[in-house]
Amino acid sequence: SSKTLRSVSVDLNHDASLLIDIPDALCERDKVKFTVHTKTTLSSFQKPDFSVPRQHEDFIWLHDTLVETEDYAGLIIPPAPPKPDFDSPRDKMHKLGEGEATMTKEEYTKMKQELEAEYLAVFKKTVQVHEIFLQRLSSHPVLSKDRNFQIFLEYDQDLSVRRKNAKEMFGGFFKNMVKSADEVLISGVKEVDDFFEQEKTFLLDYYSKIKDSTAKAEKMTRAHKNIADDYIHISATLNSLAADDMTANKKNLEKLSDLFEKFRKVEGRVASDQDLKLTELLRYYMRDIQAAKDLLYRRARALADYENSNKALDKARLKSKDIPQAEEHQRQCLQKFDKLSESGKKELTSFKGRRVVAFRKNFIEMAELEIKHAKNSVALLQGCIELLKSN
Amino acid sequence: MATSSERSPPPFPDSEDQDVLDAEEVRGRDSDEDEDLFGTTIDRSEVTAGVIDPLSQQEAKQTSTAPVIDLSGDSQPVTSKIADPLVDLFSDAPPAAEAKKPSSANVDLFDDEEGSDIFAEPLQTKPAKQPQKSLFGEPDEDVFGEPLGAISKKPVPKELKEKSVTTKVTAGGPLQDSKPADIFSQAAASTPSVTSTVNPKTNGVHSEEDGDIFAEATVELSLDSPRNERKKEATAKPSAPAPTSLPAAASLAKPQPPALEEVRDGMNAYMAYKVSTQTTLPMFRNKTFTVRRRFSDFLGLYEKLSEKHGPNGFIVPPPPEKSLLGMTKVKVGKEDSSSTDFVERRRGALERYLQRVVNHPSLLQDPDVREFLEREELPRAVSTQALSGAGFLKMINKATDAVSKMTIKMNESDVWFEEKLQEVESADQQFRKLHALVESLVVHRKELSLNTASFAKSAAMLGSAEDNTALSRALSQLAEVEDKMEQLHQEQAASDTFTFAEMIADYIRLLGAVRGSFDHRMKAWQRWQDAQSMLQKKRETEAKLLWANKPDKLQLAKEEIAEWEAKVTQYERDFERVSATVRKEVIRFEREKTKNCKRQVITYLECLLQSQQQVSESAFSYS
Questions:
Q1: Residues ≥6 apart with Cβ < 8 Å to B495
Q2: Which residues of B fall within a CB distance of 8 Å from A385?
Q3: Tell me, what's the pLDDT at B405?
Q4: CA distances from B42 to B21, B39, B116, B158 (A)
Q5: What secondary structure does DSSP assign to B224-276, as a single string?
Q6: Which residue of B has its CA nearest to A357?
Q7: Angstroms from A286 CA to nearest CA on chain B
Q8: Stretch B126-154: mean pLDDT
């Protein structure tokens, strides 16, 4: 169920007026089709309970339109879910197929099982991350009312037509601008507000560190997985040795092989838990922080605009030309800036709280799981040692 | 005519039946022996050589040996160890410790007979019992099972060996130098016990000794525990950073270049290993002694032993291979982990090699072995150099051997041998595969530890960047935990390597030696067949001469026939003997292997256990 999978965020789905989940997803070749299910009491929707199929690209479209909506410039837009990446398990599956001849039948079956489990894990992760995206939107007081969001949830035709139109309209202009924004711009603008100054420094620094941590955590998880795979092979070889062995050693070998087999399952679970609780967590918040940075960027741009408009006003006053427009422009810029600042402050504060909560929850869960697994391994080992000694 | 010893191999007993097996062995040997010096058959202090598992220290039978030692008066358990140069001081301690051990009761079991010299008493098991981790807080990663075959040699040969001896050393007749006849001429009783001690543990942690396997075999079980404790202490072998509180039992010293003699002479530099022996056997001059040996010395010893005993069907334990790359790295002074790894592996392998040699009852009697252990300076074993005349000669010999192996089609009359050969070959294959796998496991684990380390650093940085203090603290704690995990993984990798992988490598080499003994048997058979055909020819000549009526040549022919007949008989008997030896050896080998394997595995698993427990503790402390 979706609730148990959720790891990176606190429970967002508590507002009964708009409940969203992805109960189901299909994987075809390269494409994943998500079933987005909505339950709502809001009258703005046509039906109280409905589902639509969506593709990953639809999510991206939704995200981008939100980013490009001026009105939301002062909000942290939840980061877009990453594209489902089945390359890694697919490659491995391929390699496994090639190496089939060199393994025993059992080994092959087990490796295949492992790969299937990996595949499934990737699948679950991507469903989860898409779901979270929608749930962040639904729980946001402003964003949940967005018209495009509603279309996304409700429109029972293929969205791809709309998507193309949207692309043409905006041309991804804003997105590119945001993307190509230099952090230099942000740091170059003179900050007037202490709060934002602090936030800026903090977020920039934190971002680079969390990016680093994510990468390292990923490597760590992968190494764990490798070890689990090794155990499979070792177990299989021990098995063949045991089959050939006619002496009293046979039983020992069999027990040892058995142990490794069980062990690798534990290791595998350790790896996947670590992956979910630690790596995914870090990865998600890395993206979230990027979104927060984007907000800061937009605000900085607004500030720059405001300052430019000030200069323009001064120039206009000097030239005694177009003063009212300049004044109006300046007023608008200021207004925008203020609005951004205000909402930005709110957003960032709540973001901080959210982040802390999520981290804490996940770390605790991870530690508990690790303890559980370690205890498991201990029990396995002790059992095996007992067996061997008593033989 | 010669009846090949068609004894079917005795059933492979479980460890409980060791005594049974021993008895069988003894009986078997009796049939071969010409005489039993003492006329007693019981006492073969059967210490199954298997006990001396190089890799595991569990020579549980220590306790029983203790009493024996006491009886013999000044006997002390013999441990040949290769001591770590740094802990030379401890070499005295173990003997003391071991001497203490024997004080147990079994006094009445043994009679001391002063006077006969040939038999070593049954020895005791090796001390190496390491107290469980309880004594040490660290995970056990003693790479080299502590006392590998600590076989204590009882100095007084005359003792009636009682099976109460804890360590089992198969009573084997001492091997006479180059005497083809009666290898087992000696009454078996003497079981020389040579305890080779363990080598230093890298962290001074002692691997746990599991002596209980042989518990059944020894009578004096009750005495074991206290003794074990002491023994464990005795065997702790500190390595460089090791806690000095533990006296070192025999151990192959890790050659520390600065401290030890590393002759630095560019590419001529070599590592000298310290070999310390503790013994109670009378055939040695002192009770304890230390010598320095080079790697080529070990190889030289192997050459000599295999030349002398190989053709008789003995399985001569093989030393680790030469490794040009490894040594070059060390010589060049590359101070990275791979070269220390290599040195450590080699040291352990050498130690286990020596322990296997001394555990083999026949080999122990060989004066070359004694010389190796005792003599101050050994002549350089030049024939072991790769690029020398002798080296080339060896290569050529090997090639001809291989060719002849292919051409000899042995008429295998004994199905047992055929089966065994099959088993050996398939086992060899599997073990090689397993070895490769374990090596890759080690690589991955090392990777994991590296990654964990870098993650820990990263998490620490993240923690410092975090402005929420609680979270910041949590993050830095996470970093610490991960750091500990990294260390654990490192240690685990080391243990994987040295305990597991090396054991497998050892077996692969031993299997090669087993094959070698099979080959020798084949050669003996071939000789026999050749002699037979020669005899045939001579007979034909004789017949022809008879027919041609040439009396003088006839006489000559008759003599030749007689000569060849004798040869035929001789070779046949040789062949039988070799077959029997091979059979026995293989059985013994398998038994050892079983025990060793089990012990090894237990050690390894306990090691894993430790690390897992650590992991759980850390995780717990974190949350």
A1: B139, B140, B141, B143, B604, B607, B608, B611
A2: 602, 605-606, 609
A3: 61
A4: 13, 9, 17, 14
A5: HHHHHHHHHHHH--B-TTS-TTSPP-S-PPPP-TTTTTEE-BTBT-EEEEEEE
A6: B471
A7: 12
A8: 34
**How far apart are the C-alpha atoms of B323 and B341, rounded to whole Å?**
13
The span from the CA of B83 to the CA of B237, in Å, is: 8
Determine the length of chain A.
391
Model-level pTM greater than 0.95? no
- Element spanning B278, H or E: strand B270-278
User: Of A206, A230, A374, which has the smallest distance from its Cβ to B619's Cβ?
Assistant: A374
- Residue B3 is predicted with a pLDDT of 39
Mutate to test the interface with B, among A104, A194, A208, A216 (most CBs of B within 10 A): A216
Please tell me which residue, B358 or B23, carries the higher pLDDT value.
B358
CB contact under 8 A, A234 and B434: yes
Structure tokens belonging to residue A250: 């046979």
Quick one: DSSP state of residue B211?
G
- The Cα–Cα gap between A40 and B286 comes to 93
Higher pLDDT: A304 or B133? It is A304
Task: Search chain A and give the residue with CA nearest B618.
Answer: A371
**A210 contacts on B by Cβ (under 8 Å):** 462
A36 pairs with which residues across the strands? A52
Count of beta carbons in the 10 Å neighbourhood of residue B392: 11
Whole-number Å distance between alpha carbons of A349 and A285: 15
Query: What pLDDT does residue B325 have?
Result: 60
Judged by CB atoms within 8 Å, which residues 470-499 of B form the interface with A?
Answer: 470-471, 474-475, 478
Residues in A closer than 8 angstroms to B619, CB to CB, are 367, 370-371, 374
Q: What is the pLDDT of residues A343-360, one digit of tens each?
A: 888 888 888 888 877 877
Task: Quote the CA–CA distance of A238 and B422 in Å, as a whole number.
Answer: 18
Q: Which of B431, B434, B443, B464 to mutate to test the interface with A (most CBs of A within 10 A)?
A: B434
CB-nearest partner of A219 from B438, B451, B619: B451
For residue A220, the chain B residues in CB contact (below 8 A) are: 448, 451-452, 455
In whole angstroms, what is the distance from residue A359 CA to residue A369 CA? 15
Cα→Cα distances A55→A27, A159, B178, Å? 10, 9, 84
Q: Give yes or no for a contact between B175 and B362, defined as CB atoms under 8 angstroms apart.
A: yes
Cβ–Cβ gap A227/B619 under 8 Å: no
Asked if B427 and A244 come within 8 Å (Cβ–Cβ), the reply is yes
Beta-bridge partners for B294: B272
Task: Tell me whether residue B450 is exposed, middle or buried, using C-beta atoms within 10 angstroms of its C-beta: 0 to 12, 13 to 18, 19 or more.
Answer: middle
CB contact under 8 A, B455 and A216: yes
To the nearest whole angstrom, how far is the Cα of A211 from the nearest Cα of chain B? 9
Q: What is the dihedral of CA A269, A274, A275, A277, to 10 degrees?
A: 120
> Is residue B202 scored above 80 in pLDDT?
no
Which value, in Å, is the radius of gyration of the alpha carbons in chain A?
27
Question: What is the distance between the alpha carbons of residues B193 and B127, in angstroms, rounded to a whole number?
Answer: 12
CB distance B468–A364 less than 8 Å?
no
For position B621, what pLDDT does the model report?
A: 57
DSSP state of A46: S
Q: Residue B468: its chain A contacts at CB < 8 A? A: 352, 356
Angle at B150 between CA B146 and CA B153, to 5 degrees: 165
| A231–B441 CB contact, under 8 Å | yes
Q: DSSP letters along A311-371, please?
A: HHHHHHHHHT-SHHHHHHHHHHHHHHHHHHHHHHHHHHHHHHHHHHHHHHHHHHHHHHHHH
Q: Do A371 and B467 touch (CB under 8 A)?
A: no
